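WARN no homologs supplied; continuing
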Amino acid sequence: MSITASDIICYGANVMAETDATANVGGAIDKTVKMVFTALAANDTFDVVSDDADDNSQTVTITGRLADGSIDTEVFNLDGTNLQTGSTTFERLLKAVVSATYEGTITITEHSGGTTVATMEGSDDAPGGTAVLEVRRLFYGAVAAAEAAGAGDKLLYEKVFIANTHATLALTTAEIELTNDGTTSNILDFDLEGSVNDTNSVADRTTEPAGADMLGAPTWDDSKKAVPGNQLGDRTTGTSDHIGVWMRLDLDDGEAAEKATFTLTVTGNTT
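OK structure emitted
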């Protein structure tokens, strides 16, 4: 069967920043961490459930931003296929962490309307061969870290990986593009690492990745970029199945807070 959209997954890196002081941001791919980009339609509580009855001893800790801008957490005790309803009203999901390995697929939804915000695949379902223990948004807490008016602009960098999780097929002539910025002032850009399966990191998220490690100078924009080597290999071979993608967030002096999502589009050919 050909590669489908569900085979292409955006994973996190070994170190995902939660403050500007978080050290050694980036590094190698971490397939236990999956990135989530879905925004809530409105402030809401969360529901959490697994599709496997055996997932009944783990907890899911959701961390999110409240309507007043503060960050809070809520803990859900999994009870197999029985839906667990929350009581904390969040403005957005920042991350969700499972306490231990599990088997099925955990689904996190908005209570009102039931829109799926994130899924976490356990040992029986994980397409990458590794159970997902955490889902998270990029630039955790970046709104709180934005500079006050008069303090100057701030550039933040964070690394994710685009991976081909198909067991036998490569995605050839692979390209990546930021097709939807999502922010009102187009403050997101990206560039690719200069080689597949890299492990590069930066001192902290305020540090620009070294030009020598990147495709170009680097070139921060939305434009389509070819994956080095022109393909993402299959996950079984494991020699070229993922590429590091550095995202740049440009917070202007006095930038107003906003809630937005963005789209990285991956294209290529498959048999």
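The longest strand covers residues 25-35.
OK
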